[in-house]
Amino acid sequence: MLITPGDILKDINIPADLRKVDRNKLPQVADELRQYIIDMVSVYGGHFSSSLGVVELTVALHYVFNTPDDQLVWDVGHQAYGHKILTGRREIFHTNRVYGGISGFPKRKESEYDAFGVGHSSTSISAAVGMAVGSNHNGEKQRQHIAIIGDGSMTAGMAFEGMNHAGALKDANVLIILNDNCMAIDPNVGALKEYLTDITTSKTYNNVKDDVWQLLGKMSTFGNSARKIVAKIENAMKGALLSQSNFFEALNLRYFGPIDGHDIDHLVSVLEDLKNIPGPKILHCLTVKGKGYAPAEKEQTKWHAPGLFDKVTGVIQKKVYDRPMPPKYQDVFGNTIVELAEKNSKIVGVTPAMPSGSSLNIMMKAMPDRAFDVGIAEQHAVTFSAGMATRDLVVYCNIYSSFMQRAYDQVIHDVCLQQLPVIFCLDRAGFAGADGPTHHGAYDIAYMRCIPNMVVASPMNEEELRNLMYTFQLEETQKLKTAFTIRYPRGEGVMPDWKRPFQKLEIGKGRKIKDGEEVAILTIGHIGNYAVKACEILEKEGLNPAHYDLRFVKPLDEAMLHEVFQKFDRVVTVEDGCLQGGMGSAVLEFMIDNGYTAKVKRLGIPDRIVEHGEQIELQRECGFDSEGIAMAVRELAASTVLI
Ligand SMILES: Cc1ncc(C[n+]2csc(CCOP(=O)(O)OP(=O)(O)O)c2C)c(N)n1
Ligand SMILES: CC(=O)[C@@H](O)[C@H](O)COP(=O)(O)O
Ligand SMILES: [Mg+2]
């Protein structure tokens, strides 16, 4: 579909073109950019409302700063569509998040304007501080380093670590732009949010502060003697007003704002001023998530990443099916935890800022006192869960597989070493799809199975997910002095009639899906359904492989593996996780440790970065879709085994 940019936007290919535009035309540039984002995302999909909220900021930043020499570091990066469109990627923007196309996030190898690769939140301040120190080291004292971070991302420990360091580096040219829209994906939470609202609404504080900073800001451009006076006034002010009442000032970050992040003319003036004030500083901008598109302003969570929609009516496209569809795994989790919690009063749920994404919002609604959104704080989520477990609560801590990477030490140090029976539910395990490598849940089997006092399981369908959740909360299981991991993928399962009575599962017990000859296929989790299809394909060709679902990667079902290696000298292992250290590796370890020899073909995610695309496209690329599994079996069946 041909989508044409507006009159001014069409001639802006890179920021140098933008910087030639008359300042009084900038509102028009912003309007056209906003419209272009609406046009494109409605037809091609992607993250939406975050980019709409920073349109004016994006234009003003590229107008005032000398990008790409000055470094713009977008936090998370889901709001950087305007930035991409203004930095040479308008013509290819229709390939955003598509297999083989551009990434939905800033990416260093994609553009010199993407100063830092991103996808996970709260890295921007640390990265910008590092860049500033690097620039100083290289004698590039004039270079500016700007971190644009949302109020949600500001809740993470890493953002505080970055500010703590920045405040101690008087020479670091770092400007933090706090894009405060009171939203993460769901409404933002926590004391910091309350604080930001307080300083935004306190009139007295703002009047005094504005006068002071206007004076200081202006004076600091006048050279050394004026700077000394500024420093003196600053010190006096710190005791008197700012450090007491302003959190950022207390960290030695000069705080400016709050200002209207949609008033582009004012933004340009303020940024021009700040450019001339050296050292670490923060500009607090107030914006509206979804700005300029009424439905998105109204229902901000729904429009974070809405899928395709009719931009005129605001109706989001829904897939229509001619048969009952299986539910998403996340919804099975969300409903099941409520069902279990109704019977077991010890059960609580935790999510670090993903209530909608994990479906813990179902419990938050039904049992608000027993379900916690702790903000973007994976490390805290894990240790907070550990703390509750010491008091005998049964904790389901739900974290996307790739975000759990942040909290690895907490899993080891605070949970497993202390033998606390926290139940980790790792959603989005395997390929995340269009979000790409930052979000792929590729490593969890490998990083969880090497920790002592950890059980690692993965359900092949909805019923198994329910039964694993059920089993792990039972009193006798909680007493085992081990933590539990249940990993499951993004998207739907396979059972439309998923709500079946709970059954206790034996820990470390897999199941044989089918008997067979010549080759055995071993799978873990949902991907086992691909093996079922592969067997159907192969059957038509006269091949009859056996299929075993391990269900547990740790502990392994040793009896089942003895059966496999006694019966078969050709084995295919299939997992939607990294090959190195994954389930296939565990099977090989078992084989060697027990003196078996067999030809083993391991299918899974190879030791390279797999980019974005639909999950099935990426699985095909890596050779573990149904056809890939069938091919591996064919090849093994035809090969000579010399053992
Ligand atoms: C470490 C990590 N945890 C969780 C997420 C998922 N996530 C993506 S955007 C987002 C909310 C970000 O809120 P904010 O920074 O305020 O940006 P806004 O969308 O409001 O502009 C969350 C929780 C992530 N990307 N990284
Ligand atoms: C930017 C980010 O990290 C989230 O918005 C993520 O894209 C959500 O992914 P899901 O759609 O799988 O919840
Ligand atoms: Mg926000």
Question: Could you outline the blueprint of secondary structure elements for this entry?
Answer:
Blueprint: H1 15-18, H2 26-44, H3 49-53, H4 55-64, E1 71-74, H5 81-89, H6 124-137, E2 145-150, H7 157-166, E3 174-180, H8 191-201, H9 203-219, H10 224-245, H11 247-250, E4 254-260, H12 264-275, E5 281-286, H13 294-298, E6 309-310, E7 315-316, H14 329-343, E8 347-351, H15 355-358, H16 361-366, E9 371-373, H17 378-390, E10 394-400, H18 401-404, H19 408-416, E11 423-427, H20 444-449, E12 454-457, H21 462-473, H22 475-478, E13 483-487, E14 511-514, E15 520-523, H23 528-540, E16 546-549, E17 552-554, H24 558-567, E18 570-578, H25 583-593, E19 599-605, H26 615-621, H27 626-638
Parallel strand pairs: 1-2, 2-3, 3-5, 4-5, 8-9, 8-10, 10-11, 11-13, 12-13, 15-16, 15-18, 18-19
Antiparallel strand pairs: 6-7, 12-17, 14-16
Helix pairs in contact: 2-4, 4-12, 6-7, 9-10, 14-21, 17-19, 23-27
The structure holds thiamine diphosphate, 1-deoxy-D-xylulose-5-phosphate (DXP) and magnesium ion.
